[in-house]
Amino acid sequence: MRVVVTGSRGKVGRATVRAFVDAGHDVVGVDLVRPVFDAGEVVPGRYVMADLTDAGSAFSVVAGADAVVHVAAIPQPTGHPPHVVFQTNLMSTFNLVEAAVRFGVKRFVNVSSESIVGNFFPERDFLPDYVPVDEQHPLYPQDPYALSKSFGEQLMDAAVRRSDLRAISIRPSTVHNEDNYESNLGPKVRDASEVSANFGSYIDVYDLADALVLAAESDLPGHEVFYIAAADNAGGHDFAEILRRYYGEGIELRPLERPDASGITTEKARRLLGWTPTRSWRDYLDSDGRSLQGRSSTSPGTPSSGR
Q1: Which candidate among 148, 209, 272, 303 keeps its CA 20 to 30 Å from the CA of 225?
Q2: What does the alpha-carbon distance between residue 204 and residue 137 come to, in Å, rounded to a whole number?
Q3: Is residue 280 within 8 Å of 204, Cβ to Cβ?
Q4: Domain residue limits, the chain
Q5: Which CATH number does the domain 2-283 belong to among 3.40.50.720, 1.10.10.10, 3.40.50.300, 3.40.980.10?
Q6: CB neighbours of residue 20 within 10 Å
Q7: Full-prediction pTM beyond 0.85?
């Protein structure tokens, strides 16, 4: 397929472009960064600089595509004024979906977020109704980022109603790669009291990229939504014990697939997409949360045995 990957110069975008090229697809990467022709770029495929909040730019990059994988976004509500976060994320998605519908694109993969539930950046305290969170959990977004992702999924619903477009929204947990495992997850590995809004859930960027390829190649009809997370939680802690120690009986605990389970279940993605997470924080960090880089024969992005 000819696949347009937006946000192609970001952490997720780079891994996604590589995964699509490795899968044999013709990739066009799109981002705001100026193209550099002699810098020894490691990102394969072709590249186009474009501001996707501009409708004309969005239409120009989508023309001729078989699939659009929309990764580009301001990734959190902090650091930018709320209206900038909301407008940037929502209008880029709207413009791309509108272009995809008008050009008859067959598949749109929309990168949403786990924060759509409302557990990240709330202005009022929030806890999920139950854990592990699944696709049936109600959505309670508060902040402009989560709201933009919620409206983005509604754009997918509307698009499949009015066209032959097939859409998949992927809700990844917090994304990590070899560059930030230690800084982001190291504290949680060392200390179970370092609780997080998603109960230690995370996803390796290369596992997420694999899920995006499967989503683009899928022939599932309509608009499906999938959570994507690692099988375990950061630190490999006993999930039930940690939940009760720090949250008491305030959150319903549903059945776990393993003692060190993630706070997000990916059963639906495994069942309908054929996706299985193969990487863990253990591939990058030791039991003290320190980086294994330079001390392990396992290269970044290589699946670990048994996971």
Answers
A1: 303
A2: 23
A3: yes
A4: 2-283
A5: 3.40.50.720
A6: 26
A7: yes
Residue where the block lists tokens 């992702």: 149
